[in-house]
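Our consortium's second objective concerns turning raw sequence data into structural hypotheses that experimental partners can test. To show how far this objective has progressed, the report includes one record in full. It was chosen at random from the queue rather than selected for favorable results. The single chain below, 306 residues long, was entered without modification.
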Amino acid sequence: MALPIVHHRDYVAPLPPGHRFPMQKFSQLYSYLLHQGIATPDQIHVPRLPPREVLEWLHEGEYVEGYLTGTLPETAQRRIGLPWSAELARRTCLAVGGTLLTAQLALEQGLACNTVGGTHHAFPGFGSGFCIFNDLAIAARFVQKRGLARRVLIVDLDVHQGDGTAVMFQGDETVFTFSMHCGVNFPSRKQVSDLDVSLREGMEDDEYLQTLARYLPDLLSQVKPDLVLYDAGVDPHLGDRLGKLALTDTGIFRREMQVLSTCLGAGYPVACVIGGGYSTDFAALTYRHSLLHRVASDLFRQYRLG
């Protein structure tokens, strides 16, 4: 068997010309995975739209209604940073459905990857920072409500703190939130995760990976999760427009290998989303995101998962 990869052709929605959110990276990533032989069409799983009630497990009903119908106040829309359209609303819901499917596949087969996801700045009652509905949080609650998992560990290595996720699970002992991020980056007002590791600006590969190694193995032993949700943002890269850290391509590759081999080696299934990554060089950005799927594919075979 091959690594389950979740993708939908509607993961891309139109945005105004010149918008700084790199929407086209999602289709380019999928094409790249196929072209490079990292994936084949027969290992692709296509998500469905989630029921609205699933969105409302962690988001306020008024906010969900306002976004889905395009009737949010202009101030709330500006805070999201993406102009509303019916296509974008559909794409947003499909991305959540994709992460739900990724979590299910990971629990069934040990490891799975989405080609979108990581919308960790979405709060219960509002969106922020290009994030509308929090797919990580909804997926954690989804597997719990379906009786597929009891304890979930969210490992968030996007360069920005997972502030929305942190708020959603404050006081919830069944979901552990771990965010390792650049301390001087967005959001300016940090929230309180179960574990926050604030990194200095300009941190490079070795120090970053050594820092991660000080926390992740102990967290797995402490939490003993039934599922790890991994937000593999590539915005810690030195070439990222919104990053402020200094990881290289090799550093990103080593990080993915470190996270996945540490979790799988200890027997914990992992559902991966790609998180943030912002660059006008789409070829370079696509390559960085593809490292997750390349490493995951290799480890899926190595550990004989499926």
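The partners drew two points from this record. The beta strands are 5-6, 44-45, 111-114, 152-156, 175-182, 195-199, 227-231, 270-273. Residues 86-109 form the longest helix (24 residues). Both points have been shared with the crystallography group to help prioritize constructs.
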